[in-house]
């Protein structure tokens, strides 16, 4: 759920939500679709330009989810709303029936990060080698 003082920012044309702009005193902060700050305090125009420049293509990239027991798994975002984020174990383009889904709170927790490891370090079962 979004907070008071958050203003939804949608892309012109297709009206996809790119994120929000929230107030910070006299300034504004751009907030991405995951609910994470992507700028410090800036003017309104800079916040809009930052969201426009980021777009949504990054959501299709693989992500790394650190599980409560400390292991990590490669995931893809499959649902993103202001109420929750759903990720699933990455199927590497070959759908399997035994994939696991994880429901995360919004804004996204620190345990969900862009995947930084080399693809060769990731087990096809979805676990990230450490």
Written description of the protein model:
This protein is mainly β and 130 residues long. It has one helix at 44-54, and strands spanning 6-10, 17-24, 27-32, 63-66, 72-80, 84-89, 101-105, 112-114. A 5-stranded antiparallel β-sheet has the order 7-6-5-4-8, with no helix packed on it. Strands 1-2-3 form a 3-stranded antiparallel β-sheet, with helices on one face. β4 (63-66) and β5 (72-80) form a beta hairpin. The N and C termini lie far apart (34 Å).
Task: Offer a concise description of the structure.
By secondary structure, the chain is mainly beta. It has 1 helix and 8 strands.
Largest sheet: 5 strands, antiparallel
Strand order across the largest sheet: 7-6-5-4-8
Rg, Cα atoms, Å: 16 Å
* DSSP helix fraction: under 10%
Annotation field: number of helices: 1
Q: Give me the count of strands.
A: 8
Structural class: mainly beta
Number of domain modules: 2
The overall pLDDT average reads 87
> Which segments are poorly predicted (pLDDT under 50) over 5 or more consecutive residues?
119-124, 126-130
């Amino acid at each position: 759920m979004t907070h008071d003082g958050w203003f939804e920012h949608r892309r012109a044309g297709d009206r996809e939500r790119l994120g929000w702009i929230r107030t910070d005193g006299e300034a504004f902060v751009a907030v991405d679709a995951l609910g994470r700050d992507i700028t410090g305090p800036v003017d309104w125009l800079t916040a809009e330009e930052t969201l426009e420049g980021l777009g949504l293509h990054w959501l299709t990239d693989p992500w790394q989810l650190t599980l409560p027991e400390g292991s990590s798994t490669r995931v893809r975002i499959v649902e993103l709303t202001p109420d929750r984020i759903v990720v699933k174990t990455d199927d590497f383009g070959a759908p399997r029936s035994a994939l696991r889904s994880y429901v995360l709170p919004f804004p996204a927790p620190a345990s969900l990060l862009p995947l930084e490891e080399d693809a060769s370090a990731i087990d096809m079962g979805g676990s990230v080698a450490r």
